[in-house]
Amino acid sequence: MEKRLIKKDALAGIAKKMAGDVLVWAPVKQEDNVLFKPLRADDEPFFAYLNSKNAPKNVFFPHTETLMKYTRTEKGMVFSEEVNDAPQSVLFGVRPCDAHSFVLLDKLFDQEKYKDGYYIAKRRNTTVITLACVKPPYTSCFCTSVDGEPVSSDGADILLTDIGGDYLVEFVTEKGEKLAKYFGDTQADAAADAKKNEIAAKAKEAIASKIPAHEVKPILDKNFDNPFWDTIHRKCLACGTCTYLCPTCHCFDISDEVTEVEGVRIRSWDSCMFPLFTKETSGHNPRTSQKERWRQRAMHKFKYYIDMFNAIACVGCGRCVMYCPVNIDIRKIVTDISKL
Amino acid sequence: MENIETKLREEAKRLLLEKKADVIIGYEKGTLPLTATPCFITQPDEADKLVWNNLCTQNLAKFVHDLITAHKNSQKRLKPEDRKKKVVGVVARGCTTRSIIIQLQERQYERDEVCILGVPCDGYVDGKELKIRIGGADIVDGSIDGGQMTMKTSDGDKTVALKDVLADCCVTCRFNNPIISDVMIGSPAPAMNPDAEYDDVKEFESKTIDERWAYFTGEMSKCMRCNACRQACPSCYCPTCFAEQSQPQWVGIGEDASDTQVFQFMRLYHMVGRCVDCGSCVAVCPMGVDLRKFLKKIDKDCFEFFGNRAGSSMEDMPPLGKFDEHHDKGDFVYNP
Question: How many CB atoms lie under 10 A from the CB of residue A185?
Fold first, then answer.
């Protein structure tokens, strides 16, 4: 497909121009956090970021989402036609690991057996523009161990790579090409391509943190009851930091918020780290302690997801490693499992 | 801190060998540069991994409560005469001992179920402030020496003075040495600057209601309801938090601004006379919500109205946990 070059300092202008036409989600600096937010007229996108605090999954799978609304009347329940709000949007400047997470989330929300209309509508109407990592942002990045690369078009509609003074703009899909008008008219030459390949290889080489992610599946298959599971959870606070910041964690809860006659059914993020996550109506909780909850998290990422979709449910962004308040390091856990 | 670490390891080893403690909760080196993380030691030879430095952040009293409670629950079906006590050893600085005092005052466990290894404290590093000082760069490697933090980062070499990145709660700490202990390690640390304890609160109090409300709602809008603040808090030990009750449901589980505000409001008010300003909730918050401003306001009111400083002595009961029949007006209790 087509490739172009844009000046490096033109990027913010392009994002802002786009934001005049469609909804643009971009990294915005908010106090000390960089977050993906809908770009408003007075916002300045911040593309010099390492990675955002929150994973951009909230664009397709928001923390809280209305599934339906209803009113109780004398003649029975009246359901309102809840609009599944999915305007044309652009997700501008996500890191390749996060773009990879969309491919993984698609496997669940948009599969043959179940189709999640809410997710699919947003995904369909959103163009993903990936900003490649020419230098791995964090020492705890481990994307190359989990089928990712720092310069990758996986999950992207457009890939931007910083090749020095310019960004090489690669239109990966037809959806991406539809935005071509925003990216000037300088065609990229073969030299730009060669430069990008060189940068990509170097960036891949620079990912120093490696985990044996592919080796642990057969071990997990056989070690549900291994005493190892008694060792990792003890300092776990049972908060949702890891799961809420994770680009691939997708578990949710559904609840009804009801006033006298009107009700709203919402779905909101849930976390396998919360004791309430598996608590049943009877009061029984099949996962009685943080041990079972941690085993579930590890198993889900490195075994169950492979069983179901033939893919590891981790993209190696390192958020859970960096932001876990008690430094429970998934890299260490996977490495330790590989030695069982 | 080196010789404190050596003594700490020796004492921990001794307590385990002499079976005076079944487990020691302390800190070990983390997997990321310039971090320390809670650890649980049951074997004497593991005691050598214990560390004590300015990177030890979490208030370990939370784990003391959790371990003892889990042990008690596991013994519920035994005959009383067959039940055994579990003694939990804990590496505790001033704020940790204050939390233990609160848990003891609130009858969560007996004094002989906890063995306190008291350590002097000169403050811990606020990881978020450190990040700001180094321009958000990624820390590749680092060390602390002579009051300086030296780091190799993704943005070149950086040096930051330790005193500039200490957590707010540490800078103005009034109780940086253990209040109670079974074994005291090292000599007391020099005083911090408690005179400035309420400076931030006073400034906040001088604002108008609208400004304060705007600050509150602004801070709460950052919250993503991960519950890390509550989970890290040694005073938040309810088996079922009000936020998770379903009959009745006090707060919604979604991202609605008022639900988040109500959740945080109710948690804050449950902290009256029970917050020791250990800063754990602030340290763990992934989104950087300034919870301390509000907790400190409550703390100040609690001191000014009731003369109470949470957990400052075994005798000084939390104001909401005591009833003085001679002085407290009882009408509202009997005739609401």
Answer: 9
Residue A310 falls in which region: left (phi positive, over 0), alpha (psi -120 to 50) or beta: left
User: CB–CB of A33 and B222 under 8 A?
Assistant: yes
For residue A324, what are the CA distances in angstroms to A225, A231, B111? 25, 17, 31
Q: Which two tokens stand for residue B213?
A: 């409300």
Please identify every stretch of chain A with a pLDDT value under 70, giving residue numbers as ranges.
82-83
What average pLDDT does this structure show over B305-313? 93
Per-residue pLDDT, B253 = 85
| pLDDT, tens digit, 9 for 90 and up, residues B192-224 | 999 999 999 999 999 999 999 999 999 999 999
- Tokens for B93? 């600085």
Nearest CA in chain B to A139: B140
SS3 for B132-149, per residue? HHCCCCCEEEEEEECCEE
Record the tokens describing residue B141, joined without a space. 């490697």
pLDDT band at B329 (very low <50, low <70, confident <90, very high): low
Q: Give dist(CA B265, CA B242) in Å, integer.
A: 12
**Binning pLDDT at 50, 70 and 90, where does residue B332 land?**
low
Q: In the prediction, which pLDDT does B254 show?
A: 85
Residue B333 confidence (pLDDT) above 70: no
Q: How many angstroms away from the CA of A138 is the closest CA of chain B?
A: 6
d(CA A34, CA A320): 16
Is A256 touching B (CB cutoff 8 A)? no
Identify the band that residue B336 occupies on the pLDDT scale cut at 50, 70 and 90: very low
Amino acid at B58: Q
User: In chain A, which residues have their Cβ closer than 8 Å to the Cβ of B232?
Assistant: 237, 239, 325
Beta bridge partners of A80: A69
Band (B334; pLDDT cuts 50, 70, 90): low
pLDDT value at residue A8:
92
CB-based contact B138 A234, cutoff 8 Å: no
Count, in order, helices (H) and strands (E) of chain B.
12, 8
Dihedral in degrees, nearest 10, Cα atoms B74, B77, B82, B85: 30
Whole-number pLDDT of residue B82? 93
Are residues B178 and B97 in contact, defined by beta-carbon separation less than 8 angstroms? yes
The position carrying tokens 């909401």 is B320
- Where b means 16+ CB within 10 Å and e means fewer, B215-253 reads ebeebbebbbbbbbbbbbbbbbbeeebebbeeeeeebbb
B253 chain-A contacts, CB cut-off 8 A: 253, 255, 268
Q: Report percent pLDDT > 90 for chain B.
A: 87
Of A296, A299, A181, A191, residue with least CA distance to A238? A296
Helices (H), A67-171: 96-109, 117-124
